[in-house]
Specification:
The protein is an alpha+beta fold and 145 residues long. It folds into two domains: 84 residues, no CATH class; 56 residues, no CATH class. It contains four helices and five strands; from the N terminus they run E-E-H-E-H-E-H-E-H. A three-stranded antiparallel sheet has the order 2-1-3. The chain has a two-stranded parallel ribbon with strand order 4-5. The protein starts with a strand and ends in a 17-residue tail after the last helix.
Length: 145
């Protein structure tokens, strides 16, 4: 794995882990690398000093996300990418999510991917009925220094 220091178009700095230089280039070109602060997909490598290997944390396995020093930032980046994908590829139905998911499930309306809000009780009822639903991660807002 290669760790790159990255900058978005708004000069927010963050790190990213990639299987190779080509892996970074491919992910960046497809818009899969996003800034964890603002969500911008206009990302480039920043100037950085070479890293010296220090091994893994005691008890951690190589490749274990908890073994990386920037695990929280990496997870936030992944959640932002998921949120961006859903927003760009699914219809937002707001608080009518449970109702619309049922209509799609029972063939009362054409199938389409949707997202919105549902209470815990509504989500449980949908699951009990066999409607395929999944919660989306909540991306915390950027904190000011």
């Amino acid at each position: 794995m290669i760790r790159y220091a990255l900058l978005c178009e708004h000069e927010h700095e963050f790190d990213g882990w990639f299987p190779s230089s080509a892996g970074f280039e491919a992910q960046a070109a497809s818009g899969d690398v996003v800034c964890p602060v603002c969500g911008s997909a206009e990302v480039r490598k920043a100037l950085m000093a070479p890293g010296l290997g220090r091994g893994t944390k005691k008890g951690a396995k190589r490749g274990d996300i908890s073994a990386t020093p920037d695990a929280a930032q990496k997870m936030n980046m992944m959640m932002l990418a998921l949120k961006k994908h859903v927003e760009e590829n699914c219809d937002y139905v707001g608080d009518k999510f449970a109702e619309e998911a049922r209509r799609i499930h029972y063939g009362e309306t054409d199938h389409r991917d949707i997202y919105g809000e549902a209470t815990l009780a509504e989500a449980r009822d949908l699951i009990d009925e066999g409607v395929e639903v999944a919660p989306l991660p909540v991306v915390p807002p950027a904190r000011a220094n």
